[in-house]
Amino acid sequence: QVLVVESGGGLVQPGGSLRLSCAASGTIFSISAMDWYRQAPGKQRELVASITGGGRTNYADSLNGRFTISRDNVKNTAYLQMNSLKPEDTAVYYCNAKGSMGWRMFDSWGQGTQVTVSS
């Protein structure tokens, strides 16, 4: 079993920054991808950013370069640096990790962390 835990959410004013963390633990042989999603009230969950084990990244077009995803493969942890935050970034942010436990694959979600952008 692989456990994924997000942290770092909170209340921030428009224009501010937050850094989210996503830590995967358990029986992990390798992690092929770690992704950040978000879900705002009344909206579908959407992909925000993803990063492969080799460091290749992908971002939602709507972000316009405001967010940066990174990863520490030793710690099995991914980060999402969010700058110039806007009220429309308010959502629950979820982390997903996919990879191998050695004998089978895993696809694990965290419980989410709330990000609220408001003055």
Largest sheet: 7 strands, mixed
In the predicted model, the low-confidence regions spanning at least 5 consecutive residues are: none
Q: Tell me the structural class.
A: mainly beta
Overall form: elongated
- Strand portion, in percent? over 45%
**Rg, alpha carbons:** 14 Å
**Counted beta strands:** 11
- Rounded mean pLDDT score: 96
Order of helices and strands: EEEEEEEEEEE
Helix content: under 10%
Total of helices: 0
Oligomer: single chain
Calculate the terminal CA-CA distance, rounded to whole Å: 40 Å
Q: What topology does this entry show?
A:
Blueprint: E1 2-7, E2 10-12, E3 18-26, E4 30-39, E5 46-52, E6 57-59, E7 67-72, E8 77-82, E9 91-100, E10 105-109, E11 113-117
Structure description:
The radius of gyration is 14 Å and the shape is elongated. It starts with a strand and ends with a strand. Strand 5 (46-52) and strand 6 (57-59) form a beta hairpin. Helix content is 0%, strand content 59%. 28% of the residues are buried. The strands form 2 sheets. Strands 2, 4, 5, 6, 9, 10 and 11 form a 7-stranded mixed sheet that branches. Strands 1-3-8-7 form a 4-stranded antiparallel sheet, with no helix packed on it. It has 119 residues and is an all-beta fold.
What would you say about this model in short?
The chain is mainly beta and 119 residues long. Helices cover 0% and strands 59% of the residues. It is built from no helices and eleven strands.
List its traits.
119 residues; mainly beta; seven-stranded mixed β-sheet; 11 strands; 0% helix; elongated
